[in-house]
What we know:
The protein has 230 residues and is of the alpha+beta class.
Amino acid sequence: MKNQIIIPQSALDFLQLLKxxxxxxxxxAHKQEYLTELSHIEAFADALLQELSxxxxxxxxxxxxxxxxxxxxxxxxxxxxxxxxxxxGSYTRATAVRRxxxxxxxxxxxxxxxGGFWGPNAADLKRIRTxxxxxxxTFRKILNSKSFISNFGxxxxxxxxxxxxxxxxxxxxxxxxxxxxxxxxxxxxxxxxLNALFLEQALDTFKNMRPFFDYMSEVLTTxxxxxxxx
Length: 230
């Protein structure tokens, strides 16, 4: 891989210090350190975007635009600490044909890359469940593939305790029908994040989400008969 951008130890160390001093006076006093570390994360995000764009079409224009603001929205939160204590960002897939999105979260002891559908609306959830009820095996084949299991283990996300309306608790696909979110997550150690090969690992992780994304994209852009609804 041509791009060999490395995340420095200092990028994670700064977050730890921010966690211990999560207030505006400290942050303002260390603003230049923040900007320096942010530049490393943006460079990494940009390199990852360039590589990922070779195999997917994305709306996100740059690594800088992919990285989330460090400032927390505390208006409706009981936690009034003003700053996030992780580096996070996302890439949006382009056009209505491509569903799903890529997310990265970098934090000492809690780094992961994820993708999927965090809050599907009622219509999308109904369409997905209708597909599962009619043909669960196509999706199970993806979940049971070696690449999926080695990268993500199992499908994750919030589930109903019993069953969704309109389906019996003894339905053959009840394990899939209970899902309200559809997430894939791969976690990384600090050693992996700081390694020179991490960009390649991150890219590989996102590329291995594609069978999951492609399946969901086809389901959510067609009716139960496979005809396009776009």
